[in-house]
Amino acid sequence: MHDIVFAAANFINLDAVNIIYLFVVGFVGGLVSGFIGSGGAFVLTPAMMSLGVPGLVAVASNMCHKFPKALIGALKRAKYGQVDVKLGIVLGISAEAGVLYGAHIQESIKKAFGEAGSNLYVSVAFVVILAVVGGFILRDAWKAYRSGNMHEEEKVTKLARWVQSINIPGTMVYFKSLNARISVLFTIPLGFATGMLAATIAVGGFIGVPSMIYVLGAPSLMASATELVIAFVMGLGGSFKYALHGLVDIRLAMIILAGSLFGIQLGAIGTTYVKPFMIKVVMGVIMVIVLFSRGLMVPVYMSQLGLIHTLGETTVKALKSTSFAIMALALLLGAFIVLRAMWQGRRAERAATQEVLEHGKI
Amino acid sequence: MVSYIIRRQEMANSYGSMKKKPIGKMILFGIVSLSFYALLLVKQDIVNDFFARGGIYAFLPIAAAFIFSFVHGSFTGKFWTVLGIEAARKPGSPKNQKIFRGDSMEVK
Fold first, then answer.
1. Which residue would you say has higher pLDDT here, B102 or A315?
2. First to last CA, chain B
3. CB spacing of A345 vs B88 below 8 angstroms
4. CA A303 to CA A307: how far, in whole Å?
5. Could you tell me how many CB contacts below 8 A there are between chain A and chain B?
6. What confidence score (pLDDT) does residue B13 get?
7. What pLDDT, on a 0 to 100 scale, did the predictor assign at position B97?
8. What is the pLDDT of residue A4?
């Protein structure tokens, strides 16, 4: 109870600069989210903390902006026929369980090893997941680009074909994005892992989206759109949990939402102008760059825990600033790729329209 | 000659140059959204006091998030539409085919 009162008293003062900063960061995060189904959270939480917001309040407020943003994004992409609501809800339920378990692990680690230990755990998780999954996705996108297959329909992976071929009576469910029946015994661990990752690094979609594509066999566009449903379910549950403890700063959440609702709709529109493999490109690029950002912080936390020789204060500051700058770069680059792809797509569409009209002239 | 003019008009219409934009709705939702935000920031002390109480008051931030997302979501959606930024038209869409039905020209 004492903690709650303390947290509420620590809601920061908002001035015009803070508000504009949060709005812009929200916009960029929303833009990327609308396109790849996730992301933004790992920049938003540190962005809030850099304004002096306590960590837990930042996480709680971010959650409270995440679920309405995901809802609007999902509704928009559902209009384009990209959302598999059933799959999103089925994965969302086990993801919620994963979030609770992941949060429990976080708390245990914090109790045992303190703030530095918790931060080290989070950073190592970042590095491992981003390296493995991000590297895989980029390699896949690169292969498609090299072979010239990027204009063709995506091929379902061997693993996904195997998953779709397994029949376990009593557990089979049909999902329209897969155009197949699969056993929920596959969706449960995938959803659970997504939730655990969300509780650990705030972005569950880095497991959620690739697992839908490569393990279940969903098309990239539908996987990234369906992830928004999972994000909604997780965000709603998580927000409620934090709100029960009075940790949500509704002002922060709504200001970020102000920007991100512009961004997420633009990102969703952007998906209709690009080849599906662009989803993989943006996702892979962001993941690999953020990997370096987080990697830089690992020595800082190791030094704080005494696992390596203590780093000087200037070194620590330099590492922290570089880490944050690289993270911001990742998001801005992702946003830039999305906007450029959209602009090129619209230009091509206008040129095609012009050609059609020219043919109308006799 | 007349049928040619009618066909050209249909083409122009279907390519969105004469489509009605939801400017009125955008302005309405924009005003409501701005009012909610003004209220949130002007009364932030009272808001923070109630919303951070926890327990049964947990519904307040959740409800607020849904309300803001409906109002501001509608505004931002119409905003992009008014600016002409909408989803891509799929190639070979019904509109294209309708225009060239009965024509000797090929559909691109």
1. A315
2. 24
3. yes
4. 6
5. 127
6. 54
7. 30
8. 44
In this prediction, residue A124 carries a pLDDT of 86
Rounded Cα distance between A174 and B98, Å, is 35
Please report the ipTM that was assigned to this predicted complex: 0.80
User: Token pair for residue A321?
Assistant: 């600033």
Contacts of A255 in chain B (CB under 8 A): 37
The C-alpha of A212 sits at a distance from chain B's nearest C-alpha, in angstroms, of 24
Residues contacting residue A241 through CB under 8 Å, at least 6 positions apart: none
Q: Which of A326, A338, A40 is nearest to A198 (CA)?
A: A40
Computed from CA positions of residues B21, B24, B28, B30, in that sequence, does the dihedral angle turn out positive or negative? positive
Judged by CB atoms closer than 8 Å, whether chains meet at A250 and B61 is answered as yes
What single letter denotes the amino acid at residue A60?
A
The three-point CA angle A277-A290-A201 to 5° equals 100
Strongest mean pLDDT among A130-139, A304-313, B31-40: B31-40
Closest CA to B79 of A130, A321, A202, A263: A263
**Residue A29: which residues within 8 A CB-CB, separation 6 or more?**
A39, A40, A41, A43, A44, A256, A259, A260, A263, A331
Can you tell me which residue has the tokens 């960061």?
A: A25
Work out the burial of residue A358: count CB atoms within 10 Å of its CB; fewer than 13 is exposed, 13-18 middle, 19 or more buried: exposed
Which of B:15-44 have CB within 8 Å of A?
A: 15, 37, 40-41, 44
DSSP A26-46: HHHHHHHHHHHS--SHHHHHH
Q: What's residue A172's pLDDT?
A: 94
- Whole-prediction pTM: 0.80
Q: How far is B69 from chain A (nearest CA, A)?
A: 6
Tell me the three state secondary structure of residue A180.
strand
What tokens does A289 get? 């760059």
Across A243-271, average pLDDT: 92
